[in-house]
Amino acid sequence: MKISLNWLKEYIPVTHTVEEIANKVSLTGIESNPVTLSQGLDKLVVGHITSIKPHPDSDHLNVCTVDVGEDEDIQIVCGAPNVADGQYVIVARHGAHLPEGKRIKHGKIRGIESNGMICGLDEIGVPEKYVPEAFQNGIYVFPEAEKTGSNALELLGLTDEMVDLDITPNRADTLGMHGAAWEIGATYDEKPDIKKAELDDAKVKELSDVTAEVNDPKLVPDFLLRELKDITVGESPLWMQRRLWNQNIQPVNNVIDAANYVMIEYGQPIQAYDLDKLQENKLVVRNAKSGEKFTLEDDTEKSLSHNDLVVTSGTQILGLAGVAGGISARVTPDTKNVLLESAVFDGVSVRKSAQRHDLRGDASNRYEKGVDNGSVSEALQRAVQLVDQTGSVSEISQEIVGNKTEANPTVITGSIAHINHLMGLDLSTDKIMKIIDQLGFEAKLDGDAVTVTIPTRRWDMAIEADLIEEVIRIYGYENLKGTLPSGMETSGGYSPKREFSNKLSDSLLSQGLDEVINFALLSKTEVKAFNTKKTNLTKLLHPMTEDHEYLRTSLIPGLVNNVAYNQARNNNDIAIFEQARIFDRHQGEDRPAEVEYISGAISGNIANDSWNTTKKEVDFYDVKGIVEELLSFTNAKSHFEYVTTDEITNLHPGQSAFITADGQRVGYIGKLHPSYQSEHNIDDTFVFELNIDELFELNKRKVQSQTAPKYPSVSRDLAILVDKDVESGQIVNDIFTNGGKYLIDANIFDLYQGSHVKPGHKSLGYHLVFQNPNDTLTDETVEQAFDVIKESLVQKFNVEIR
User: Whole-angstrom distance between the N-terminal and C-terminal Cα of the chain?
Assistant: First the structure.
């Protein structure tokens, strides 16, 4: 809510700058910022067009003679379609500064001298959508004659200074100028002088043309109407228009503008209808029927739900209650009789309807947060007063009541001692009573006991704690003395599990992967893509969109989306990971379990061209190496294996494997299936996913430091011919099983398939390292172990030693 300083001065004396006011209000608990309009603009004056003639070398330009309050008129070439003789307009003089760094200079336009510019509102900083419709495609014309040469910005309200209140949901009372005046006034010990609206009694008649009915009083506590007869609909006065566009509201006509003006003034939305366009002379507020159609003022049609609250006349839907008006009874320049509505609608119903139909606006925002039911009638009277002032109303009806709830003030009791105790202060009774009075509350003191009557404008207050909060706000949080807490201190730190997961993240970061954070909600197709746990899907009751209906069962779909997003922008070398939770819901359970996972996706080159290297595309073994390095940080006793699989349909069946720890599955690794990559428009991508919770539960080994070996190692190379279906991992496991206590390493260094190798076979080469940390190994000891290894391989895998 932007609070106009000029408008605020009508209620309280304001001598402070907007910066000082914003800082003061922020210290009371409502974050505020100063707003300065038309900053940097200058030399914009009122001009009077005294003559106009067509440009000799253009079919759309005109040469205007303009009086700008100087000794001689100036000549300006203007291309606006609505420029005309006799108009009072905005003129940017030579040297004027306009928004976005534009500067006006003398010049010639198609050979004719032009000494300035005639401007539209959008050209001097008013957003185009808030410019009155009549002036959206041309220059702005003042509705009345103004003094030539006077400051145009000042006349248009663009020199006004404002304070932008970023209110919390419980302080919706400041969504109106009256409430804001009470709030700002309380901080400066100034009570606002707010005059009540008064009507011309001679015009108020006992009219009974229209009746009102509310089907569910719980959803509509208040519904009040007034008829206005024989009005003149036209342009609203400039003072009203400028306050509206400064509040980001487009002026329309004097009736609609008066309704919007009251909404800003009181915080109470007002709706206007053309009385003669009603289907029946009875307004009914009811729930819509499912499938009913409602056409908005912009001709957009909405299909309604039975949960939507509507205002109707017969079968005619006039508006979506508290959200939007319809086109069928809109007030236009031809309107002669008007019906004004002031109401209180259930905030939850309004919020859900506004969200359901994507129609959140100024009115729905106020109903959602709450409005003062004590000012519903007064706000309606103020709207009638403004329309009468600007539209010459001949007759005004008495208040027509569909439903009316008595507005009773809240009474809170407490004690001075208890208030001081909870604040940790020792304020005097007089000081506390003065603060309560500053807030505009009535208080009675009986010894130590105090009874406070809260006006209906502060519907957020109900208990003593609310009153104490108000006292300490106005007293000033900055006046509280800093004290250290007493008692036992608890040292902070991460849990063991959190430290473990951080260690895994650090491992991937050290290997060059970048961490990403993705949304936990996905579409149904995405959550099923990598649901390797076969868990039951968890769907939200009220999803934002169809793409965010389900809680994820894997982190991989989010990473795939990241890869697709980057590759679409020509960022092809990608190495990313995410550490987050997936949601595992077992049969019969209402709430899913949250399981910690860590997953990665790598695509493109893992090494690029350089003066001493050549580029290399990532492959399965590069990613396997990253995962092995990651698993080394688990410090687990378990033996990790990679078991080939074709169970995960969206992974390549020849390049995917489950990762097991002593036979227990803890994750998987693989290349995305070509068809899945094609669906997502991505290049070859390798992924992995590990269950952090299961890794954390693995038995940990004790790590002991030891000195470097004093004795040299002995190596042997082993070349074998083996069936192509035998995995290298099986060979390595058997080598370690039979290699004896001095075998410390066994690495594959060669793989060959082709000519000179039997069909269906492959040649593998292994480098074996033996070492005795306490003595020098003899060739005899090494050869004995080497022979045992070869004999076992021949027996178990039918290998040929080469």
Answer: 85
